[in-house]
Amino acid sequence: MNISQAFMIFAATLPFSVSRQDVVDGDHPYQNPAADNTCGGCCEIKIK
Amino acid sequence: MTSTVISPAVLKQKFIQSSSPTHLGLAVSATEQCNFRCTYCYEDFEIGEMSDATYTALKLFVAKRMPQLKSFTLSWFGGEPLLALDKTVDFTRYCNDLAAQYGVRMPRATMPTNASALTPKNLVALVDAGVRHFMISLDGQADAHNQTRKTIGGKPTFDRVYRNLLAVRACRTEQPFEILLRLHLHENNIASQLALAEQLSADFAADSRFDILPIAVGDFGGAPVKSLALLRSNSDSIKGEIYRRFGRGNQAAAQEEWDVCYAAKWNHLFIRPDGRISKCTSALNRADNDIGRLLENGEIEFDEQKALLWGFGFQTGKKNDLDCPFFDKPQEQTPIRFYSKTTLLENTAALEFAPAREANNGPVVTSAVAENNLPVIS
Question: How far apart are CA B293 and CA B299, in angstroms?
Answer without folding.
Answer: 9
